[in-house]
Every structure is written in structure tokens, then in C-alpha cells.
């Protein structure tokens, strides 16, 4: 008999999935002597997921994955964070040494609801029909934006949530740079400020090169535009023109686009102002919408 594996019980990245929004169904997959092939499973976004090719399927067998995953639930936060990052490196999600250093420096445990497993590769509800992304999505976005997160550059994070990825951006660009987080739920902004104040990014918040604001992220934050990097943490039906306008020539935006079927788009603005767009992967994010619609779960 093939063994059945619940996506709720183990790190979904181990099975090759990328997702942002919480899974709404328990989905059992049979994992026995087969290798994931993306073209064979075109409809998997139904489960808030998208396929990601992994180098082999050895992690399905024996107890190697499961024994490693147990470490996420015990031991010090430093050890659990290190283990999480090492897992992401093993599966090829993190390649950059700089991204590794930043994710080791910013403790994800400070940015998730109390009592939740911060170091398991899963998105989590943070209330108000919002989520904090799975660690592999944070790592992917940091990797995609790394060249535009150099010291002194300007960054905009739309839908900054609990502040985790925004804090990572702040440490990437440093005190000479500028990072702005925009979130339209006031309670999340207040919470994110408290989270950052406990993190390695606290001095940047205090000194003013890092700020978190209540606002409609679809309109960006013109005060500190243009931005070298823009990250959007919710899926837009169409790319907001205000965000394109606030992207610096030579800059890059990473944004999920779509409604039910969504793609993570990488948008580069050329020096002449023209736009180049490519698709990185399929994803499933909560929608980029108004505050009222989000609260109602629309």
C-alpha cells in the first residue's frame, strides 16, 4: 500500500509546493516510488499550492524528513530557525548567502501568533482574513529582489502584515536605505511595530529609515518613491498602475497576479521606463482588495 501524507502534518515545501494562503482542505497525497512532475498535476492550485520541481524524491522514504521536521517543534528558537533555513537551502529555495544571513538574523518566531509553530514551512493565519507567508515564499521573494535590496536602496512592502518580510528588507538596505511597509488593517500595523521593536531591525525603526503605515497599499506610498524594489504580499487582479509608476527605472516588483489562478510575476522597469514581465511560478495568495472586503472575507 502506498503511504498517505497530509499536507497539514509536514512541511509542504518538502513535497514541492509553494503557497501563501492557508490550506482550506486536508488533502491526502500518495507518495510511493514516484517523482513529482509539474506537468502531471496542472490543477493543484486548488489546494493553495503550486508545483515546484525538486531534485529527487528520496525525502519520501525512510524517516529522514520526518525526523528533521520534529526539530522544528522543539529546542531553542535559534536552533529551530537554523534548521528551517537549512531545509530551504537543501531544497534549493535559498541560494544566496545574504538571504541566509538575513533570515537567520530576523527571528520569524517574533512575527507569528503566540503558540503557533513559527519554524514549520507553512503559512499561518494572522487574523482579519490575512496570512503570514510560508518561509519558502519569503525566501523566494528575498532571492528575487536581492539585487534591488542593496545598501542605500528604497523598498516598498505592500501588505506588510506582521512585519517579518519588511524587517528583512530593512536589514538588507541598511540605515542608508529606506523601507516602507503599508498595511490597511490598523491592528496589524500596531502589532507589526511591536514585533519589529523586539527584532534585529528595531534600531532602523527607531532611527526612521524603516517605517510601517496604515494605508491602501494599492496606491503605494508616494512619499519615498521611486522604489528600487516593491514587494506585494497579496494577489492583484491587475497590477496597480500606482505601483508601476512608483517603481524606479532599473527597479523590480514582485507581485502575485490573478484571482483564482494566480502567478507570481516579476516586473522589471527598464531604464527607458518600459516594462518587462515574466512569470516565476504559480501561487495562491489572499486577494489584494479593500480593507472592508478583506474583513468580510470577500
TrEMBL record:
User: Known EC number(s)?
Assistant: 2.1.1.77
Q: Name one GO molecular function term.
A: protein-L-isoaspartate (D-aspartate) O-methyltransferase activity
Q: List the GO terms this entry assigns under cellular component, sorted alphabetically.
A: cytoplasm
Q: Which UniProt keywords apply?
A: Methyltransferase, S-adenosyl-L-methionine, Transferase
Gene Ontology annotations of biological process type: methylation; protein repair
- The broad enzyme category this protein falls into is transferase
Family annotation (Gene3D superfamilies): Vaccinia Virus protein VP39
* Domain of life (superkingdom): Eukaryota
Q: Which reaction does it catalyse?
A: [protein]-L-isoaspartate + S-adenosyl-L-methionine = [protein]-L-isoaspartate alpha-methyl ester + S-adenosyl-L-homocysteine
**Which protein family is named in the record?**
Belongs to the methyltransferase superfamily. L-isoaspartyl/D-aspartyl protein methyltransferase family.
Task: Identify this protein by name.
Answer: Protein-L-isoaspartate O-methyltransferase
- What is the organism lineage in this UniProt record? Eukaryota, Viridiplantae, Streptophyta, Embryophyta, Tracheophyta
Amino acid at each position: 500500500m502506498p503511504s498517505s501524507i497530509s499536507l497539514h502534518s509536514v512541511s509542504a515545501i518538502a513535497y514541492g509546493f509553494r503557497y501563501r494562503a492557508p490550506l482550506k482542505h486536508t488533502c491526502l497525497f500518495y507518495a510511493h516510488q514516484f517523482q513529482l512532475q509539474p506537468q502531471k498535476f496542472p490543477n493543484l492550485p486548488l489546494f493553495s499550492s503550486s508545483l515546484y520541481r525538486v531534485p529527487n524524491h528520496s525525502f519520501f522514504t525512510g524517516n529522514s524528513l520526518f525526523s528533521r521536521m520534529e526539530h522544528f517543534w522543539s529546542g531553542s528558537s535559534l536552533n529551530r530557525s537554523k534548521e528551517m533555513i537549512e531545509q530551504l537551502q537543501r531544497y534549493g529555495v535559498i541560494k544566496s548567502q545574504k538571504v541566509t544571513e538575513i533570515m537567520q538574523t530576523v527571528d520569524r518566531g517574533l512575527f507569528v501568533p503566540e503558540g503557533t509553530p513559527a519554524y514549520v514551512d507553512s503559512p499561518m493565519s494572522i487574523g482579519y482574513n490575512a496570512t503570514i507567508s510560508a518561509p519558502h515564499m519569503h525566501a523566494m521573494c528575498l532571492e528575487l529582489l536581492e539585487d534591488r535590496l542593496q545598501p542605500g536602496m528604497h523598498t516598498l512592502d505592500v501588505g506588510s502584515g506582521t512585519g517579518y518580510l519588511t524587517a528583512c528588507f530593512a536589514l538588507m538596505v541598511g540605515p542608508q536605505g529606506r523601507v516602507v511597509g503599508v498595511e490597511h488593517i490598523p491592528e496589524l500595523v500596531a502589532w507589526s511595530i511591536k514585533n519589529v521593536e523586539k527584532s534585529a531591525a528595531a534600531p532602523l525603526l527607531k532611527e526612521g529609515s524603516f517605517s510601517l503605515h496604515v494605508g491602501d497599499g494599492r496606491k503605494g506610498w508616494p512619499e519615498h518613491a521611486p522604489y528600487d524594489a516593491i514587494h506585494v504580499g497579496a494577489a492583484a487582479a491587475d497590477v496597480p498602475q500606482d505601483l508601476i509608476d512608483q517603481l524606479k527605472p532599473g527597479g523590480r516588483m514582485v507581485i502575485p497576479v490573478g484571482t483564482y489562478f494566480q502567478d507570481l510575476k516579476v516586473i522589471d522597469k527598464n531604464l527607458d521606463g518600459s516594462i518587462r514581465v515574466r512569470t516565476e511560478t504559480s501561487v495562491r495568495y489572499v486577494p489584494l482588495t479593500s480593507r472592508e472586503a478583506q474583513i468580510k472575507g470577500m
